[in-house]
Amino acid sequence: MRVPNNVLKAQRWIITDVVHDFDAEDVWALPITGGRDDFGAVIDLMNSIDFPGSASLPARLLWKIRDLLGGLFGLGRISTAAENAGTWPPVPGTDELSLLGRVPRELRDTATDSHLKDKPFRGLYISDTEFAEEMSNRTMYGVMHLAWVDKGGGRYQAQMTVYVKPRGAVGKAYMALIKPFRYAIVYPALMRYLGRLWAEQRATR
After folding, report:
1. CB-side exposure of 149: number of CA atoms within 13 Å?
2. Is 28 exposed, middle or buried (0-12, 13-18, 19+ CB in 10 A)?
3. Label partner for 64 (CA 20 to 30 A): which of 55, 114, 117, 205?
């Protein structure tokens, strides 16, 4: 399900200008497909997921350890809603407390009520084919971008990209440390969960 980062160049996305100084950490083709008008259902699905609550034991354990360490060492917890996460550190290398100012003006109020359940994300924007949320902690500033990619023949597929901007050497070391665990445990569990949830949702239509 993981795809090369250069696939981002295949289509012009709004997010490209918003995160021009960020790194594309991961790009994933999600097990979610549908028609052009199904992107709203995809966003609703992502906002309602219970992850890692419904994931495998290793994924839940890894998430719990990260949450405990985040609280213990002041790295920021990952199971706390954005409104309860306190004041965010600014985007590294800037004085910006949010990326919302980089979003095109006509899209800035489109995601104000959107957020991942019990996760420290804040909505940036929603368009016909894109959905973006931001988060910040003591190790990095990140953006989760969901795109509805035209695969031809009226078929679309969800694509998730994670953009990050580490906070100095500590942030870079932390991102390198957790990468093997993300690839081996977290993302595979997330893919299975999303695929199952989407199939169940489609079956009830």
Report:
1. 20
2. middle
3. 114
Which residue carries 């990619």 as its tokens? Answer: 149
What is the number of other CB atoms lying within 10 angstroms of the CB of residue 63? 19
Collect all residues with Cβ–Cβ distance below 8 Å to 196 and sequence separation of at least 6.
none
- Bridge partners of 150, per DSSP, are 156
Q: Which of 51, 119, 138, 113 is nearest to 80 (CA)?
A: 119
In DSSP terms, 35 is beta-bridged to none
Is 158 exposed, middle or buried, given 0-12, 13-18 or 19+ CB atoms closer than 10 A?
Answer: buried
**pTM higher than the cut 0.85:** no
**Sign of the CA dihedral running 122, 127, 128, 131:** negative
Residue with tokens 């023949």: 153
Judged against a pLDDT cut of 80, whether residue 87 lies above it is answered with no
Cβ burial of 56 (10 Å; 0-12, 13-18, 19+) is: middle
